[in-house]
Amino acid sequence: MDTLISLRVFAAVAELRSFTAAAARLGISAAMASKHVMHLEQRLSARLLNRTSRSVSLTEVGALYLEQARAATEGLDEVEASIGSTAISPQGTLRISAPVWMANPIFARILADYRRAFPGVQLDIDLSGRMVNLVDEGFDIALRATAAPDPGLITRQLARITFMLVASPSLLKRTGRPSALQDLENRELLAYVIVPPDGRITLERAGGKRSVKFRPVLRSGNETLLHLAALQGMGFAFLPSFLVERDLETGALIELLPQDAVIDSPLYAIYPSRRHLSSKVRTFIDHLAGPKGLRLDDRRRPDLSER
């Protein structure tokens, strides 16, 4: 963890006598504030704060350390103030965690555009799709499509992603093409891991919500595998528009019930702290939300305007 940031967090907690209040001031979660203080305590092998369910107070060591922490941070503030608004070009490695389906030409183009604008940044991208711990694993940003992000995290909505219901021509020839939502009951589903074991999916329509119970025949957290299985006619699948665009053009997959069987999900950038964003993180998030980022003009893709 960044020790300088940890010093600032510790000073705020000591001043406000509350992890929650300090976190709100600094634009981080209370859990993150606690991790920063524990980071300092581990470095010093000493307890800095006494914690109870109702109060936070300085230990004797903590009071001494607070004086030094304030001197260090105030000195740095003076240096930063003397520099003013001088621009600092983003440098270093930017570690990003993203869904498997971001391995597509559109995202590759976005990355290439960013690198042309900021050649001093090296990109290190994990597309495993697993839920990473940003701080403990050293990630700068996570990109996640979710309807309900963890309220303890700092997020910025970048886009809305459409997950289309698709199937191969061979599957439709074998099972028949559904013409309404009720025709999907008990159909074979290539299910993402968050789908309940009974295969029940709730779809939002103009007239309200409608639940459909599929029959899962394959479960996986890897959208690439689900995509390949769909191409083989193994079952129906809800897949991101990014991933199936070419297949829809060639007829390898067919979109079904586009007015009813569609799942829209916000895409968020998730990061540990709002206040202490490095220039590489800030510029990358702004790039994703900007005109060369996740803004798509095809009518089949969702409206990706910012919230």
The average pLDDT is: 83
Give the tally of β-strands. Answer: 13
How many discrete domains?
3
From the 3D coordinates, which CATH architecture of the largest domain would you assign? 3-Layer(aba) Sandwich
**N-to-C order of helices and strands:** HHHEEHEHEHEEHEEEEHEHEEH
Give the overall silhouette: elongated
Counted by DSSP, the helix tally is 10
How much helix is in the residues?
A: 25-40%
Task: Please provide a written account of the structure.
By secondary structure, the protein is of the alpha/beta class. The protein folds into three domains: 3-83, Winged helix-like DNA-binding domain superfamily/Winged helix DNA-binding domain (Arc Repressor Mutant, subunit A, Orthogonal Bundle), CATH 1.10.10; 92-156 and 267-289, 3-Layer(aba) Sandwich (D-Maltodextrin-Binding Protein, domain 2); 162-264, D-Maltodextrin-Binding Protein, domain 2 (3-Layer(aba) Sandwich), CATH 3.40.190.290. Helices cover 37% and strands 25% of the residues. It has ten helices and 13 strands. It has helices at residues 3-16, 19-26, 30-44, 60-83, 105-117, 134-137, 169-175, 223-231, 241-250, 279-289, and strands at 49-51, 56-58, 92-97, 121-126, 141-145, 154-167, 188-192, 200-205, 208-213, 215-220, 237-240, 254-255, 262-271. Strands 3, 4, 5, 6, 11, 12 and 13 form a seven-stranded mixed β-sheet that branches. Strands 1-2 form a two-stranded antiparallel ribbon. A hairpin with a 4-residue loop joins strand 1 and strand 2 (56-58). Helix 1 packs across helix 2 (19-26), helix 1 (3-16) packs across helix 3 (30-44) and helix 2 (19-26) packs across helix 3. The longest helix is centred in the first third of the chain and has 24 residues, at 60-83. The chain starts with a helix and ends in an 18-residue tail after the last helix. The model is unreliable at 296-307 (pLDDT under 50).
